[in-house]
Write a structure and sequence with these properties.
By secondary structure, the chain is of the alpha+beta class. The model has no long low-confidence stretch (mean pLDDT about 90). The strands form 2 sheets. The chain has a 4-stranded antiparallel β-sheet with strand order 1-2-4-3. Strands 5-6-7 form a 3-stranded antiparallel β-sheet, with helices on one face. The longest helix is centred in the C-terminal third of the chain and has 21 residues. The protein has 5 helices and 7 strands; from the N terminus they run E-E-H-E-E-E-H-E-E-H-H-H. Helix 2 packs antiparallel against helix 5, helix 3 packs antiparallel against helix 4 and helix 4 runs antiparallel to helix 5.
Length: about 180
């Protein structure tokens, strides 16, 4: 995906619907990294304008509080992109496709469509949470485990999951502030 300081991906032509392409290239959906498409030999290459942002895989998220912040922001984005006719379940969520602007704390996602057989928002979120847990050093990663269990076993809508993440953040804050 990253090559020569450029974020791009090549996929089969028609992997992205025309109405999605219009949304993704127009820049109207400010929650996603703006894209430009170029087709060649039955394939398409999407170039992303990541100016000012860095993918999460360039950071080391060591505090559960920060990981929950990122997860909450990603869920908020997923809730908003549906308003732009982009299916949240089709968006690849990894540390490579979620971008962060350190100066403002803003998060955006690079839209990379999942293959049809892999489309599952639940599985996608659980894998993303597992990636967020990798560098946690504060001893509170069980809160991320709880978030993954909520997503896996609960039948929650995105807004409900966001509310549950807020509760986990409060619980973590109370626990860490009581012990300091």
């Amino acid at each position: 995906m990253w090559k020569n300081d450029e974020y791009k991906i090549t996929f089969k032509e028609n992997s992205i619907h025309d109405y999605e392409r219009i949304m993704l290239t127009s820049g109207d959906c400010s929650y996603l990294i703006p894209m430009v498409f170029m087709g060649e030999n039955g394939n398409e290459t999407a170039y992303y304008n990541c100016s000012g942002f860095a993918s999460l895989d360039t950071y080391s998220i060591e505090k559960t509080e920060d990981a929950l912040f990122v997860l909450e922001k990603v869920l908020l984005i997923l809730g908003h992109v549906a308003e732009y006719l982009i299916s949240p379940a089709k968006i690849t969520l990894t540390a490579s496709t979620v971008f962060y602007r350190q100066e403002s704390g803003e998060i955006k996602i690079a839209y990379v469509p999942l293959p049809d057989e892999a489309v599952s928002l639940r599985r996608n979120l659980i894998r993303f949470i597992a990636q967020l847990k990798v560098d946690i050093k504060d001893g509170h990663s069980t809160y991320l485990d709880q978030a993954a269990r909520l997503i896996h076993y609960g039948n929650y809508r995105i807004n409900d999951i966001i509310g549950q993440i807020g509760l986990l953040k409060r619980e973590l804050y109370l626990k860490t502030s009581a012990s300091s």
